[in-house]
Amino acid sequence: MKKTTKNIIYIALLLLIFALSYVVDIIAPYSMLVTVLRKGAVYALVAVSMNLLNGFTGLFSLGQAGFMLLGAYTYAIFTIPTAVRESVYYYYEGGIINFQMNMILAMLLAGVVAAIFAYLIGLPVLKLKSDYLAIATLGFAEIVRALAQWDGFGKITNGSNLLKKFPVLDNTTQYFLIVAICIAVIAMLIHSTYGRAFKAIRDDEIAAQAMGINLARHEQLSFVISAFFAGIGGALLAIFQTTVQANAFKSAMTYEILLIVVIGGIGSITGSILGSFLFIACSEWWLRFLDEPMFIGTFQVPLLRTGFRMVVFSVIIMIVVLFFRRGIMGDKEFSLDRIAKLFRKKAKGDKK
Amino acid sequence: MRNVLSLKDVTMQFGGVVAVNNLSMDVNEGEIVSLIGPNGAGKTTVFNVITGVYEATNGRILFNEEVMLENYPKGKMKKLYKGENAGVYKKSVVKLPDKITKMGIARTFQNIRLFKSMTVFENVLVAMHLRRKSNVFTATFKLNMKEEKAMREKALELLCEVGLEDVKDELATSLPYGKQRRLEIARALATQPTLLLLDEPAAGMNPQETDELTAFIKHIRDKFNLTVLLIEHHMNLVMDISDRIYVIDFGKLISSGTPEVVQADQRVIDAYLGVTEDE
Amino acid sequence: MKRIIALALACLMVLACFAGCGSKKADDVIYIGIYEPASGDNGAGGKQETLGIQYANTLVNTVTLGGKEYKIELVEVDNQSSTDKAISAASQLVSKGCSIVLGSYGSGVSIAAADTFANAKIPAIGCSCTNPAVTDGNEYYYRICYLDPFQGTVLANYAFEEKGETAYVLAQLGDDYSVGLATSFQSAYEALGGKVVYETFPEGTSDFTAYITSAKNAGADVMFAPTSTTSASLIISQAASNGAEYALMAGDTWESSVILDAAKGTNLDVSVSTFFDENDDTAAGKEFVTGFKAWLNANPDKLTNNGGNDIVAAVSALGFDGYMTAVEAIKAADSADSQAVADALGGVVYTGVTGEIKFDEIGDAVRNLAYIKTVDTVNGAFVFGKIQTIAD
Amino acid sequence: MDFIAKYLPYLLAGISVGGQYALIAIGYTMVYGILRLINFAHADIFMVAGFIMVYASASMPIYLSIPLVIVLTVVLGFVVERVAYKPLRSAPRMSVMISAIGVSYLLQNTAWYVTGGLAKVYPTIPWISDTVTFMGCTTKRVTFITPVLTILLVVILVLLIKYTKIGIAMRAVSKDFETSQLMGIKINTVISMTFIIGSFLAAVGSLLYFSNYATVTPTIGAMPGLKAFVAAVFGGIGSIPGAVIGAFIIGICENFIKAAGLTTFSDAFTFALLIVVLIVKPNGIFGESTSEKV
């Protein structure tokens, strides 16, 4: 295939996806599909940002929920309309912030705040290696969660209470657009000379350093950029949920994102995106029927009741982790060439 | 001749084990100098100290007359230190490996350390990152196209130089051993060094390949105006190529000089006793 | 081997996809959504509220709109007592096409889902969520129980009059119900001249001994702990084993058999406020209690969901009233369309087992009395204490 | 009020909860010492032990259900290792850790399914759950039993590791995995044994913990688990006495922070402590340092 035809096909695919997201809103505005698409998109961004760190730079960080919390809170705090602050900050006399920011600016700010925190926490923490780094970042996320719930910051964070009434996006295309832009930036970063340096660090720290790559600086950079996009992801999650509460950003959330990254394939952007939509669709939608009693004739299918969905789901995850260790995509990216190859292989197999 | 690299009283001690003991050596511009010694003599440790992977316990290293490392026994080492010249150095100057590479020292590894997920081409390309002018924004948003293009051209050039241009899109780790070694050299050259450290470049090569390598090292020395310091067990290669040779055993310098001088030195022969010279 | 597993997984996905898209809404059915926790910290209470709704559904399961009879079906989802699961649970109801939604036990999850329902233009009736923020500023959310400021004041009055002048208030961080009621209690109690020590505990706390000791050290006469029943049973058992001498008080959540089990055999003084009394002597109340008990005893599953006994919880009565109010609204709207039901709901006046339900402009039912009950720790039962009201 | 009567309850609570963390922490530290794996599922094994007791005691007397709980928990620990970790022996460490997270997810969801997601009340174990009075403060007898039992078990464990054949094998494996394999140590037996000991202690820990805090939920393991892990890191991961001392310190600090009225930070403190320890003394108080060979 020629490069130009390929590019045309890629662009067409992208447009098709956007068109679909637009159409879905019109024909089935309240379906689970919309929920899955929106949440999937948000998780895709967060998963890609985590992949940048864990998959491409080889830093095992479990602080993603903390950065998302920072992003979600920043967005919510600065965009709640001044008129309703009184009712949102019911316990704190309307809070101390009395202006409202533009949505896009607030989203960027959400990323920036997360990035600043990442920078500060990264200074000491990035000296640690592998599991120690993982556990330290996990601890950091828990500290952030405790701080956000602290009464002392109540006038800003509304204590442990919900933040709500902030502006939200009202169609799926907008979610897709924001997420696509962010992921595109991450992808461009990964394909730049910096991305190569990140991968070098992942492959072999000592060799990377011997090639003149400043380890501390590049790790810090990757950490901060990952946090920036996790912050934006957090803001989008807030928008999706219409309310924010620190309680939701537990380590379980980080684990979920990590599982998405693993299922999609560590070191594959398209893998993370695919993994995210599959994960959300399975957990929220496709497997729902397992939670309800099912009758075939008069025979009641055994085992089906609330919670069975999650059992099946976690078994599937274990199967993937144990038998398909490289995930859906491995460290490869989705490309037409690979699909063409796949078909060719199949055709060959058929002939035999 | 200008001095490029100078080690003075360098001691590297791990806990109670002295790996390099009070070593002093000099490498001058344009020379090819070999560091030899029996297995476990501490040769690779010397490389690691020079390139900053290890922080020497005591001593001073100068590169182009600039202090690259200066250290004295500190903390726990104060009591444990078994080396000499403990009181000579007072300052502690430590540079990280990447800084040292930036100053112009590049190296290869004894146990090949290529970036395993990358292609041959990318392995060289990534080493050009060091001399970039772009920052993370310009690089991400493709505002550095010119530089990127130059990088790619240069990388290709280097691959042609080592004869790997035909396998440039293959995974580095899928190459045969000899080619991986040459790729390591190409990658080291991509950092634009003035001093090249080669750690057993001929390991695992047959005599013919070794001969080719000898010519090749000389060739790149001339072409890139390099000074070369190498560790090697292939004595033919060492004697062929070296302007001067340093011999260490148990971390200590036992002999140095031109190949002829070293070959005749009884201490060297003793040290190597039981070790076949021609593998 | 690997290939077989891959194939099996893929098949499962496809199957699931069909199952997920499969269900289509029948023509002559109206769906009423039950948005309640069936698991998590508030699972026990949510199940009891659901029981009330299910019982009501057995009594009235059809409605005639425009001359055509529609069957009313309940759609249950489990919000797992967790605000982050709330959205997908609520979306589930929205995607089923419910005309109206009932719930939830626990204010936090109600607040979290409020906008999801509002965006889909589906009205919701909060049966027992007392935090003002549930209905405030949301024209689709209504409520049939009293509010925290009222309940807090009632309890503060009772505590101040009966127990003493120093209170230790313990709320769960991040639980809107808990924090809301605790704050209301605190301000009312302080207004009366009482002294309050306010503490919070993080979600998932098991070790309450430090709080119990702190309350003792603060010289508290009463510990006010509006928490979920899960935390409550821990607090009660640890208070007993650490020899707490002060009284324990809480709001409506503690009116549960979980509390009775925990308090039985101790010498604690536990009292709660609630919406409804089993021994209520109104005709409607009596009828409901006998009917509900008979229904529970006839269904072993339901009895288990009620905590293994046939004590009628106030939330079941509220669930019952919530369902009836919803049906009234559908009748008034004469349509299954959720927007029409929402429009009609504000005007509904209904006299249920918990008293008259009439909504004010915010969407809250006007309520002005609460029942205070104390725990008989010998027999493990609630004893009616008094009816507490406050002057408007 | 008298100083002792005021603060003694915090100290007692701290020591007892510290002992319970210690029993969990040993499981973490031993597994990490040998496999270099943060066994995230360990906390959930602790939780499952709690549920087994709830269900077992409903159908049999306490003196039968306690041994049953211990046996079943040990079996669970063994099975988890064989199914989820053994196939990944040669895989990168991250894969194993992810598998551990997966197991944790599975155990929690299964527990959620079985219990319907509702909290279960832990049975009262006679004698140890009795209320006793000590220096004017009232508490359960388990408060005093915990530290004594913990220290006893630790002493036995340390002796076991020091003097028995399997103990020596464990130490060898934790020093050098490959070499000990070459020396003829049956690596899988050693690893299984580690999991068995860890699970046994987790089961004992769960008996003590839930006797004190008598509610079991599917996510109950998370917090004690994390804290126990922090204790293990604090004491220097791989070191058993380190883990125990770390656990007691964390348990006591946590309770005094609550006493000081900073309850919001009682959990956050643990993690702040962790980060500080990792940065200042990355190998913990009793840990050994390692360096990579180039």
Provide a descriptive summary of the structure in words.
The complex is a heterotetramer of chains A (352), B (279), C (392) and D (294). With 279 residues, chain B is α/β, with parallel strands linked by helices. Chain B has helices at residues 43-50, 77-80, 97-103, 120-127, 136-140, 145-162, 177-190, 207-223, 235-241, 259-264, 266-272; strands at residues 3-14, 17-28, 32-36, 58-63, 66-71, 93-94, 105-107, 195-199, 227-231, 244-249, 252-257. In chain B, the strands form two sheets. In chain B, strands 7-8-9-3-10-11 form a six-stranded mixed sheet, with helices on both faces. Chain B has a five-stranded antiparallel sheet with strand order 2-1-4-5-6, with helices on one face. In chain B, strand 10 and strand 11 form a beta hairpin. In chain B, helix 4 (120-127) packs parallel to helix 7. The model of chain B has no long low-confidence stretch (mean pLDDT 88). Chain C folds into two domains: 28-146 and 284-359, 3-Layer(aba) Sandwich (Rossmann fold), CATH 3.40.50.2300; 148-274 and 371-389, 3-Layer(aba) Sandwich (Rossmann fold), CATH 3.40.50.2300. Chain C has 13 helices and 15 strands. A seven-stranded mixed sheet of chain C has the order 8-7-9-10-11-14-15. Chain D is mainly α and 294 residues long. Chain D has a domain at 18-218. The model of chain D has no long low-confidence stretch (mean pLDDT 86). The interface between A and D is large, with 45 and 46 residues.
